[in-house]
Amino acid sequence: QAQGCRLVCGLRCCQRVFSWIPVLIITCVVLWSYYAYVFELCLFTLTNTLEKVAYLLVFHVCFVMFSWTYWKSIFTPPASPCKKFQLSYSDKQRYEMEERPDAQKQILVEIAKKLPIFSRAQSGAIRFCDRCQVLKPDRCHHCSVCETCVLKMDHHCPWVNNCVGFANYKFFLLFLSYSMLYCVFIAATVFQYFLKFWGDLPNGPAKFHVLFLMFVALMFFVSLMFLFGYHCWLVAKNRSTLEAFSAPVFINGPDRNGFNVSTRRNLQQVFGEDRRLWFIPVFTSQGNGHYFPLKNRSSESHNSLLANEDMWEESDDGSEEGSLGESLSFCHMHIYTSMHSL
Fold first, then answer.
1. Among the options 143, 157, 163, 183, which is catalytic?
2. What is the pLDDT, as a whole number, of residue 4?
3. Whole-angstrom distance between the N-terminal and C-terminal Cα of the chain?
4. Is the dihedral of CA 68, 74, 76, 79 positive or negative?
5. Average pLDDT of the chain?
6. Taking every annotated instance into account, which residue ranges of this chain make up the domain Palmitoyltransferase DHHC (predicted)?
7. Can you give the pLDDT at residue 341?
């Protein structure tokens, strides 16, 4: 048994090491493109000083924004459900000791009444993660690679070696957009020298770098264009990649547009209300990832927690904060809380 555990740990370590290979490939390509553009093209090939300075200035702005967003996409941890969605000790004992599946489902239903949970499993049951031992908030899914539940999980991206979800979805979109801008600028400024090297200019190290730089920039731009366009459509519809393939299920059944609350509000959920910060890789997404407004507001009325207030949050110290004045008595189970932007 000890050998089996060591073998599993060894395989996991190997998996973690190999998972960084795509990131290493992207990093090497970008570093090479930096050398090829800055040194081989701008410093060794260009003769016009004004053109050289302008190219270097704009290039470094694109390079910094690309690197910043890529870094944030990689190293921003995927947000996981807070403690409120974990079973208490007594509830966990009651759930594990119960052998009847129907009774277990009813236990989860009773616990979920106190939480802002409106989506369901395909069977209609409360979504529960046996591995993480948490009730899944709306749009939350378990990632088998990260081995954790991720809030508003979109997908696991090998190119950033991270889950793309609520905490870093804005960074991922900006990474795609600045990657496209980086490729477009390189292709546009290299094109005339690509033609010259292809015809008149003599062979040399710069010729290889400039020709190859043009092909690589165009190749990456085409692939990124389709991916970025797809995610723009997802943002406009307020869907994740997982929800695009499998519609979220509510009490009234599956609904692909269950979280679609208008294009403007959908954009604000991802980028925030301050448009000056939309294109800067700082976290401005609305909410805390545990609750999202629904298109069909009547479906919220079954949960007394949100009957009159559609926002909820756990405070930093783990306590609940009320913003509706006096709370009603516990026997009626009307507890109103408000959700502040992180």
1. 157
2. 63
3. 45
4. positive
5. 83
6. 126-245
7. 33
290/83 Cα distance (integer angstroms) = 11
Number of C-beta neighbours around residue 124 at 10 A: 11
Q: What is the DSSP letter of 322?
A: -
- DSSP-assigned letter for residue 305: G
- 157 is an active site residue: yes
Positions of the chain with pLDDT under 70: 1-6, 8, 198-203, 297-342
Which pLDDT score, from 0 to 100, does residue 216 have? 93
* Tokens matching residue 184: 């477009």
- Phi, psi angle pair for 261, to nearest 5°: -115, 25
The number of angstroms, rounded, from the C-alpha of 292 to the middle of its chain's C-alpha atoms is: 15
Query: H or E element: which one contains 148?
Result: strand 148-150
Q: Is 288 left (phi over 0), alpha (psi -120 to 50) or beta?
A: alpha
Q: What pLDDT does residue 199 have? A: 64
| Cross-strand partners of 129 | 134
Q: What is the pLDDT of residue 119?
A: 92
**Token pair of 226, please?**
């389709």
Work out the angle at residue 41's Cα, subtended by the Cα atoms of residues 36 and 46, and round it to the nearest 5 degrees: 170
* Residue 33 φ then ψ, to 5°: -60, -35
User: DSSP code of 332?
Assistant: G
User: Could you write out the DSSP letters of every residue in 107-145?
Assistant: HHHHHHTTTT---B-TTSSPPEETTTTEEPPTT-EEETT
H-run or E-run covering 150: strand 148-150
Half-sphere exposure in the Cβ direction for 236 (13 Å, CA): 6
Question: How far is residue 56's CA from residue 213's CA, in Å, rounded to a whole number?
Answer: 16
* Polymer length in residues for the chain: 342
Residue found by looking up tokens 């702005």 in the block:
61
Q: What is the pLDDT of residue 178?
A: 98
Taken in order 23, 342, 111, 91, the sign of the CA dihedral is positive
Alpha helices in the chain (DSSP H): 2-18, 21-35, 49-75, 89-97, 101-112, 169-199, 205-237, 241-245, 263-271
pTM assigned to the model: 0.84
Q: Which amino acid, 337?
A: T
Give SS3 for 250: strand
